[in-house]
Amino acid sequence: MSDTTLPKTVDPLKYADQDKVLEGHLSIHLMPRLAETLVESTGEVDVKLIFGRDAQNLRVLNGELTTRLLLTCQRCLQPVETPIQSRFSLGIVLNDEQAQNLPRVYEPLLVEPDKLVVLDVIEEELILSLPMFAYHDDCVIESGSQAEHKDNEGVSEKTNPFSVLSELKKQD
């Protein structure tokens, strides 16, 4: 599948009434807000969007996104490949009143009646799925005490940065 399998815009109300399912891949470089947070904006996102109605006859959009993103490790500042798997359930609403009455199991998706930009929904969900901190599982970073221990191996005594204050105190 390629980028063309997913339409740029859809009529969300019509798709929900017809129980449409969209599947395909999108290139990560097409998502500029997401790309800002990445080391490299290469690769693709596997997308599955399921439009429909729930038991309460509300229009909903359920989705699954799967990808691997290259983020910056917060320990060593080197690139780290992070798997992202996101599942989301959105309630399709036309105004704020409908959004307030939406059951808590759904996040509101405020749409225009005949236009939903598919790429925007996918990009927003990926941004929300990013981990707070990305890091390598085997990344070793030296703590302050370990670094001091290494420094002290070659030096008999470490200078105290506050020794100047004690000298000032003695002068008074």
Description:
A five-stranded mixed β-sheet has the order 2-3-4-5-6. A two-stranded antiparallel sheet has the order 1-7. The protein is elongated. By secondary structure, it is an alpha+beta fold. Residues 142-156 have low confidence and may be disordered. The chain starts with 8 loop residues before the first strand and ends with a helix. The protein has one domain. Helix content is 27%, strand content 31%. It contains six helices and seven strands; from the N terminus they run βαβαβββαββααα.
CA-based gyration radius = 26 Å
Helix content: 25-40%
- Provide the β-strand percentage band: 25-35%
Topology order in helix (H) and strand (E) letters: EHEHEEEHEEHHH
Large-scale geometry: elongated
Task: Count up the domains.
Answer: 1
Number of strands: 7
In whole angstroms, the N-to-C terminal distance is 80 Å
Sheet with the most strands, sense and barrel status: 5 strands, mixed
